[in-house]
Amino acid sequence: MAAEPAASLPYRLTGHVGRRFVQAVEEFGYGAALLVESLYWIVAGHWLNQPVRLRVVAAEMIDIGVSAVPVVAILAFANGGMMALQGIYTLQDFGAQSQVIPGIAMSVTREFGVLIAGIVVAGRSGSAIAARIGTMNMSQEIDALRVMGIEPVRYLVAPMLLAMLVMMPVLAILADAMAVTGGGVITSLKLHMALPVYFDRALAELVPSDIGQGLAKSFVFGVLVVVVAAGNGFIARGGAEGLGRATTRSVVLCIAAIVVADMIFTLFLSR
Amino acid sequence: MPQRTSDSSRPVIEVEGLRASWGGQPVLHDVDLSVEAGEIRVVMGGSGSGKSTLLRYLLGLHRPDAGTVRLFGEDISRLGRRDMLALRRRIGVSFQGGALFNSMTVGDNVCLPLREHTRLDEHTIRIMSRMKLEVVSLAGFEHLMPSQLSGGMVKRAALARAIVMDPDILFFDEPSAGLDPVVAADLDALILRLREAMQVTIVVVTHELDSAFAIADRITVLDQGRILMTGGVDEVRNADNERIRNLLTRTATDTEVDVDDYLERLTQGVGPQ
Ligand SMILES: Nc1ncnc2c1ncn2[C@@H]1O[C@H](COP(=O)(O)OP(=O)(O)OP(=O)(O)O)[C@@H](O)[C@H]1O
Ligand SMILES: [Mg+2]
Question: In what helix (H) or strand (E) does residue B41 lie, and over which residues does it extend?
Answer without folding.
Answer: strand B40-44
